[in-house]
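We examine the record.
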Amino acid sequence: MSRENIYRTAAYVTAFSIVEKFFGFLYRVILSRTLGSEGMGIYQIALSVFAVLATAAASGIPLTVSRLITKYRAKNNKNAQQSVVSAALVAALCFSVPAFCILFFGHDLFDFIFSDPRCMSILLILLPSLTFNSVYSVIRGALWGNKQFLPYCVIDLVEELTMMTAGVILVVGMTDVFDGAKRIAFAIVLSYLVSFTLSAAYYFLKGGRLKNPRRQLKPLLSSALPITGMRTSNSLINSAISLLLPARLIAAGFTSSEAMSEIGVAMGMSMPILSIPATLIGSLALVMVPELAENFFRGQHTKLRDNIEKALKISALIACLLIPLLFVLGKNIGILLFSNEHGGEIIRNSCFMLLPMSIGMITTSILNSLGYEKQTCIYFFIGAAATLLCVWLLPQFAGIYALVIGMAASHVITMVLNLRLILKKSKEKVRFLKHTLLSAASIAPAVLFGSLLLNLLDAVMPTVAATILCGVILVAAHALFLFAVGVARPRWIKVLVRRS
């Protein structure tokens, strides 16, 4: 893939991802306003446990399937590519089907997991989608490895739209917040069924076949298990936090209702806003990972270094553009979107962790694409230990911000260790530090400019108009400044509008 094709592909993947996440975000706003903080807390806790199961079933498979298909495509070995898909399906189904059966029919044995029994009812509704999601994950990896990004993006968008449409229709008739949470769970199952059906139909209609998986099971599992272990542990830790944090907040003086509301605000309202860079960087990783794997397997070290530098620079740029925006407008965002000022304050006070989070995410994807899954898994556990330690020790001093501090510590640790390994293993020197420091140095003047601008606009127009106009002007002015100093480059825009 040429440099222009990489930017063009990244541009339309990002566009699809932004549209998808916009609808997802709009849906979450609707749910937050409909269910309130308590309903969102119940839903979020049940969903966090389901996420552990979904992650354990197939989270390492898409990247591994993509990397192995890239490897065998470089060798023109079609049979091996199809065997990889078959092996991945066997591995995914061997976990997801038994897990569904055990939990669905023996759920009484696991009621102790939740302090609120309503969460188990929601989890049981979600369980059938475990198998649907596992199969789609395999086909997603096949599409990814073959650089078929358009169907990948379209199916993801259809899944999101299905969930949103079904959820909105169902939640209108809810009788209470518990009934509403159950209806939302049904919408998730329906959306996963749709993505499973569409992806399977596309794969086989486009000539995809299943071959004997025996020879590919070992290389698949040896690569996928460390990634799955890392991501499953991440989901487990998120679930542990969802279960541990209320207890620690109560021990710090919060009532049970206050603790659940705090978690609903932080995890259901603020964190989705703070995950915006993850959406954009996920799009970048989707395009770059197969390219990096191909550079690696072909021994193209100069191209590999160039692509790593691009990924790091773009990730840092995304974070540094968003931090001033969220700091200046965070409080207004919480009020306007969620009718919750506290949620806006968490956004504003937590936005600075976006820089280490963004670099940590992209460097993990880079290292996984190059075969360093075991190292990234170890680094993850080190960062996760810091998060859990903060959640255990800090609620009495920082309240819900104990979670934010723990997440920031984890991202910093992961970023530092990942960068250290990349610099150590790269055969050609990777240069990104100057670019990152210049991007970070632009945050302070952008925050000052945005704060003054918002105060001025608030004095002459309504809050909604002032917030939107300030956001547009701030991003535009900041971007122009970064272009002027040479930190940002307009290649994505040029390539996106240029005719093929």
About this structure: The chain has 20 helices and no strands.
